[in-house]
Design a protein that fits this description.
This protein is mainly alpha-helical and about 250 residues long. It has 10 helices and no strands. The longest helix has 28 residues.
């Protein structure tokens, strides 16, 4: 938990620094958002492990405030790589549709808010058969399937983008960083897959979580935060010749 907390702090600091850099702003902001989302997911795990059952207020805040926002990570990876390979590329309003899948991440929070409002208005009685806790638990378990698929699909697009770019432009620091950046997330997607499969099998899920929890997924995420932060910060100051459009 201390390792995760330190990674969260590192991620937040790196996010602030990347937002403040005046050069390569488009790419840096995309990377900053990417690191911030990963850091918030890690913060969520830290809070659950250290503050759970401490107060009813925490339970309510944890249910209302979405910290695990995973669906935008795939598009952010793709657009970040495209931006560092082609500085003229811009994530404008037409690209917002790629982030609409964020609704999958916030469904549990929206359901809790609606449930609280309906309860306050007296529209839900004690005889209701709806088990809110069970719904959230089951939903959070199976929503990881589209989350993982989204990451893999966008990593595939990103790899194809880099391959196309290499055929037009000779290797430079940005091309090498794009390859290493993508490869880092490919490794993470493989680690996540080997944790996800037993997690989705009812007979193995409780055994997995009781023995190793989510640490096999989140410790690599913390490594990613440090690695992305250091290397992304270094590459953000580099100047380069304008490559061919892709």
């Amino acid at each position: 938990n201390i390792i995760i907390l330190l990674g969260v702090i590192q991620g937040i600091i790196t996010t602030i620094l990347l937002f403040r850099i005046k050069v390569n702003q488009r790419a840096n902001k995309l990377l900053a958002w990417l690191i911030l989302l990963i850091s918030l997911a890690c913060l969520n795990l830290f809070l659950l492990q250290t503050l759970e059952n401490t107060s009813a207020l925490f339970d309510v805040l944890e249910a209302i405030i979405p910290l695990v926002i995973i669906m935008p990570i795939g598009p952010l990876i793709y657009f970040y790589v495209k931006t560092i390979l082609n500085p003229d590329f811009k994530v404008d309003r037409s690209k917002r549709k790629y982030f609409y899948s964020i609704i999958l991440d916030v469904v549990p929070n929206l359901v809790v808010i609606i449930y609280i409002i309906f309860g306050f208005l007296g529209l839900i009685n004690n005889d209701s058969n709806f088990d809110l806790g069970n719904f959230i638990s089951v939903y959070n378990q199976y929503v990881d399937i589209p989350r993982w698929l989204s990451l893999v699909i966008y990593l595939t697009f990103t790899y194809q983008l880099i391959s196309k770019h290499q055929s037009n432009v000779k290797n430079n620091a940005f091309t090498k960083w794009a390859k290493n950046f993508t490869f880092g997330f490919i490794i993470f997607s493989i680690i996540w897959f080997f944790h996800l499969v037993p997690y989705l099998i009812p007979s193995l899920s409780n055994l997995l979580l009781s023995n190793v929890g989510w640490y096999p997924v989140y410790i690599p995420l913390i490594v990613l935060v440090y690695w992305l932060g250091i290397n992304g910060y270094i590459i953000s100051f580099k100047t380069y010749k304008k490559p061919s459009k892709i």
